[in-house]
Amino acid sequence: MTPTLKWQGKIYLFFISSISLIVFITGDGFSTPSLKDWVFVYFLVSAVLLLSYFSVHLPPKDNSFSMDSAIYLAVMFLYGISLALKVLLISILVEFLYKRKMAWWKHLFNFSMYSLMIAGAFYSFLLFGGQIGEIKTDHLFPYMISLLVYFCVNISLIFMFFVFLERVYKGAFNFGVLLEAMVSYCVTLILSLVLAILLDKEQYFGLFLFIVLVIILSVVFKKFINLYELVSNRANKDHLTGLYNHGFFKETLKEQFSDCKMLKQPLTLAFLDLDDFKKYNDRNGHLQGDRLLTFFGKLLQQAVEGTNFTAARYGGEEFAILMPNTTKEDAHAFLNRLRKEVNDTYFDGVEHIPYRCLSFSCGIAEMEKDMYESNELIHRADQALYYAKAQGKNNVQLYDKHNMCLDEIKFKQDLEALEQQVKFFLSKDVYTYRHSKRVFKYAVEFGSCLDELTDHERQTLILGALIHDIGKIEVPRDILNKQGKLEKHEWEIVKKHVTWGREIIAAEKRFDDLLPLIELHHERYDGKGYPYGLKGEEIPKLARILCIIDSFDAMTTERPYQRTKTFEEAVEEIDRCAGTQFDPAYAAKFIAFVRERYLPLAEMQQLN
């Protein structure tokens, strides 16, 4: 919650406060109990405040729940709603007095919320046959319903508050979070029944025993959580720098990537590499090199302190910073400022390396809407880092696809390497080999017509087109060469060629850019494709282009079990499926390309 309320929040607060006041009046919350009852009320209030302080902590970190609800429920089951509401009111008033820094409306919201929760639980308890004044252990159904209503009212009121503030938190639709909350409430129900039985038998002593029990649980679980965090830190932290290690960082990146993509929030990744670290090591020794890494790790920890950034040692002298809710421009400003601070920070021995100061090179990449997995972000940040080092080190570079073009020699080497892999089909499935070569040819020609593609994207499209069906090498020969229509189970095997192809090509890191084309060229624009059912611009741009080229060649190539379409018929089919199977913008451009480049040749062949 925020310190001040927007007008929507004020309306919502007024609304539930008014309802809770009505509940309080109708629940006889203003009735005056006897002196003996007041003493008991003050004991219960003390118990509520004490148990609020001694909350029960559970892993993971910051997951805890208070047992104050157990007191409200137990009092309600034994003495009715009136006494429960009195305990609630006095507890909130006392909290208001010693938590003066907490905004007044938060106290009011808590009181209103708990009032409605107690009222909902009480009336549902009565509705389903519960009886106030005694605990019937042979008829637990009303107690279960009562707790369920208590839980649902709690979740609904909090969720609606965030809706009114237009700040729906990212875990709101997370089933795991709701399940954890439900487990906590189940524990609350069990302990509320334990407390009710104790109060029924030995009123004050029973309350004392319950408080002692919960405090012991709180202390034990706090020790447990501390041990959990210690073991977790050992598993997730790099022992030398104190930063998170490679494995933890990769897992965090996957989670943040998924969250930010779903919530349409920016996510930026930066890779940092200490300049001339090998030269420093060679001159000063490995022990001093380790001290430098430790020193630099502390600088990164200080830099990200107070932010939601995650800093990690990625490997060797390479570090990574994950920046959720941060644009690449903001990340560039942050890291360039850090670079200058690092340059001005002396460390023993740096005067003997080329820049005569501590420095790093940095590459930054921001998640784009057509990315489908976190490895793409890693690859782009890595390319930007490589470019930063190529620019003379000690600088920060944003990923720019215009700067990432392969040189012609490397492109030809990659092309030859992939060509050798495709030739494996010559002995197994000549059709797939020829199909790959034709799709490659179309990609070369069509790619040159797309002005919006960078040179790097054209090269990636060409290489991906050549190798896109490499996964079919794993498909049994009798299925690949079957004359008739495939059975359902056979078709399921064929569909796996995209994931098999990805596994084959992923073995060489230099081909990482091709992975989306290999794995996703059978995704459909309407979301009905495979393997993931991605939709629209969730599918990477080059995979959408390759899907059109691949389908066009499949339609215009003779196969035993299907009639071959003419180029004109294939063009009409692509036009018909634009917006469903194919990206409509690139479908229109491909149709124009075929009409200009191939249809005149096809018409001349028909005349001859």
TrEMBL record:
The chain crosses the membrane at residues 12-31, 38-58, 70-96, 108-128, 140-165, 177-198, 204-225. Residues 265-401 form the GGDEF domain. Residues 432-555 form the HD domain. Keywords: Membrane, Transmembrane, Transmembrane helix. The keyword Transmembrane applies. Residues 410-606 form the HD-GYP domain. PANTHER family: CYCLIC DI-GMP PHOSPHODIESTERASE PA4108, CYCLIC DI-GMP PHOSPHODIESTERASE PA4108-RELATED. NCBIfam families: GGDEF. This is HD family phosphohydrolase. It comes from Geobacillus uzenensis.
